[in-house]
Amino acid sequence: MSRPTPLSGFPEFLPAQRVVEQQVLTTLARTFELHGFANLETRAVEPMDQLLAKGETSKEVYVLKRLQDEGTGDAGMGLHFDLTVPFARYVMENAGKLEFPFRRYQIQKVWRGERPQAGRFREFTQADIDIVGRDGLGFHHDVEVARVMAEALGKLEFLPGFRLQVNNRKLIQGFYAGLGASDPLRVMQVVDKLDKMPAEKVGELLVSDAGLSGEQAHRTLALAQISSTDTSFVEAVRALGVEHPLLEEGLRELAAVIEGCAPITTDRIRIVADLSIARGLDYYTGTVFETRLDGFESLGSICSGGRYDSLASDGRSTYPGVGISFGVSRCLVPLLGDGVVTSSRSVPSAVLVALTDEESRPAADATAQQLRARDIATEVAPKADKFGKQIKYAEKRGIPYVWFATADGDQVKDIRSGDQVAADAATWQPPGEDLRPQIVLPDRDN
Amino acid sequence: MSRPTPLSGFPEFLPAQRVVEQQVLTTLARTFELHGFANLETRAVEPMDQLLAKGETSKEVYVLKRLQDEGTGDAGMGLHFDLTVPFARYVMENAGKLEFPFRRYQIQKVWRGERPQAGRFREFTQADIDIVGRDGLGFHHDVEVARVMAEALGKLEFLPGFRLQVNNRKLIQGFYAGLGASDPLRVMQVVDKLDKMPAEKVGELLVSDAGLSGEQAHRTLALAQISSTDTSFVEAVRALGVEHPLLEEGLRELAAVIEGCAPITTDRIRIVADLSIARGLDYYTGTVFETRLDGFESLGSICSGGRYDSLASDGRSTYPGVGISFGVSRCLVPLLGDGVVTSSRSVPSAVLVALTDEESRPAADATAQQLRARDIATEVAPKADKFGKQIKYAEKRGIPYVWFATADGDQVKDIRSGDQVAADAATWQPPGEDLRPQIVLPDRDN
């Protein structure tokens, strides 16, 4: 085999990097569970008609074909491109066996059949939470998902601060309608370009493409510039002099999210009403979320979602929901790739038991097993090399302790300090921070 | 959307079943880590030439095709059908950044592009451990992977007992060579049919297909009938009067595995020399493993593996390895599907905080947050329904405790016993077994 090269768009981690990802996933999962979210894992494939059901033919889907199949065979199946489509299908398939409102989290890979190009993922991991009801879902769940995700991201202590930006579709659509726009949806699509082109250019498009007057375009841009960390945005919107019942409902809802999230905001975790956020996707009907990481704005939104009035419908019932999705790979791949964050060692082992000679392996195994029984990850040296070489083995992997059976009894050496002390495998305990690999920030720590 | 139906061969779990799978994966992962195995996750796809490199064209592979690609595009990629091929590729790709011997575990889905049929998985989860060396790997690692996997399976307390069956390719190939067989590999392939056809029929095939004399066939079958939980198999083999240096080496190695595993065997965990085990795959060169679950022999081997002298080779170095793979889905899907095992509740929540009225939601949220801060999974009632209805909500999900804010202070009710006591969210603690969903065995518990 000649040396294989990485496949563009399919990121993989080295062991020390994977430690960071694992700890991130564990923290997210535990936070979601503390809030009552049950875990689900759905199959990787869905029928093509489901994948294309929303009419989003722009979705790049990987279609599956059996190697040994001459005919069409499984041509009707493709890899899921998000976790929402499979979740909607799962809810419909199992509606009779689920209890509503149903809270679930799902952490899985998704695939996009894109042309290979720099910076584009073709396989990546997402962590989604959603709450779905049957024929109704209280608005307070919009507040809940924002709080839960903000709390989960906040627990990732190595992340810089972030801004969870909230807006409301009813608010902006009501505003455009109150303004007299003939095609509020088109206005929204043009406003959504604000992060890609200057406001002036967007203003021109609002006139030429969305049929607004200059004055209407001006007020539309003024709305998009409003943002606040408290409910003062309400007065700022009212000052623009537009009135519409849908606008009022949107203002009330957005204010409720901002107020409801106030108890968990900190300098690092900011939850902001930002009236420029629209989300391109058609299915959102109320609250919408995006998230920017301080200093990493170029990553775009690392965490997005919103309220949808109908996740699915089977004729008898509709299933409204609200959810938010964290782009695990989108956030971690650049941070790990640039070495902003890594872990203190590439193996779980806290201890290497050294070998005096090959005959002492059973005794070394027994020592290791005593340590493992007390939750201390331990490996035994692969060979009875000179001790210097065995210590080197530990050093290369970042294993902090080497254990020796000496004529005077067992001893353990902290190879970072060189301190060596007598120890008993039945009772010796390393400091808590040495028990498992730690996340480290090389630049900030040095 | 009309109600979707399950896709044959793509098993999915209900939330309570997924709890069991999650706990199994957590137990496996922690056991592997205690033995120093680092976790890896590889991408789902590999180049087709890698997937087909072993010449096993019988492997059913799912080939990927981009929906919007007219030409050949990504036709060169397919979904991995095991975790060994991706691991070999990963080791080659990253050899310069890994430390050898390299221990890794990998728990991922794999796919087989099979024709849909009952009992055949097209997507399933495997948990693999492997140790790979560069230009050499001590034999004691064969003992190590057997011990680690047996210990991990042993910790799955809901599983019945099991038999880890060990054999050695050198032993059987040396025996056939010593017997004078002209094509030892062909003999092995015929012997491998012993679990599918009667010994008499296999004996006939050994003569007609593998070119053995009646006497040679007789001794070949006699070898396959030898099994022992200690090293007494060595004498039983010698009694057959065949001699060959490779046979001697195989006997020594197999005896070493059986002796090395003796410290961890129990009534439930048996490690057995079983000379009928051959494993169909070409790449094993020494130790081979299979595993049968007591009372579920029809599942076949739930955990298999062995030693391979060359996982990969890049011209400069070869990478020998030894590994073993547990078929998580193969084992759990039938046990969960038949209701042999399930979990005590379908949600992580230990507590539901009841609502007196919608105005008290912020206070209820604060109570819930106090409990969560002490690692008690808690949800707040979705609506301020009558208390009876809120208790019903908890009951349906298996949540054991409901929390009430009363005029006399907070109280908590164990809804199984009906006991209701005063409680403080800053200090109240449920019994440990109520903290997280428990694995339960309905038949054995009733």
Provide keyphrases for this structure.
446 residues, elongated, 35% helix, five-stranded mixed sheet, 15 helices, homodimer, alpha+beta, nine-stranded mixed sheet
As residue ranges, the low-confidence spans of chain A are none
Structural class of chain A: alpha+beta
Overall helicity of chain A: 25-40%
* DSSP E strands of chain A, number: 19
What best-fitting shape of chain A do the alpha-carbon axes yield? elongated
Number of helices of chain A: 15
Radius of gyration of chain A: 27 Å
Largest sheet of chain A: 9 strands, mixed
What is the subunit organization of this protein?
homodimer
Provide mean pLDDT of chain A, rounded.
93
Strand content of chain A: 15-25%
Taking the alpha carbons of the first and last residues of chain A, their distance comes to: 40 Å
Largest contact between chains: A-B, 97 and 97 residues
Strand neighbour order, sheet with most strands of chain A: 1-5-6-12-11-10-7-9-8
Write the layout of secondary structure elements.
2 copies of one chain form a homodimer.
Chain A: H1 15-34, E1 38-39, E2 45-47, H2 48-51, E3 62-66, E4 77-79, H3 84-94, E5 102-111, E6 123-132, H4 140-154, E7 162-168, H5 169-179, H6 184-191, H7 199-208, H8 214-224, E8 227-228, H9 233-238, H10 245-261, E9 269-274, E10 287-293, E11 303-313, E12 318-327, H11 328-337, E13 342-343, E14 351-353, H12 361-373, E15 378-380, H13 387-397, E16 401-406, E17 409-414, E18 420-422, H14 432-435, E19 439-440, H15 442-445
Parallel strand pairs in A: 1-5, 7-9, 14-15, 14-16
Antiparallel strand pairs in A: 2-4, 5-6, 6-12, 7-10, 8-9, 10-11, 11-12, 13-19, 16-17, 17-18
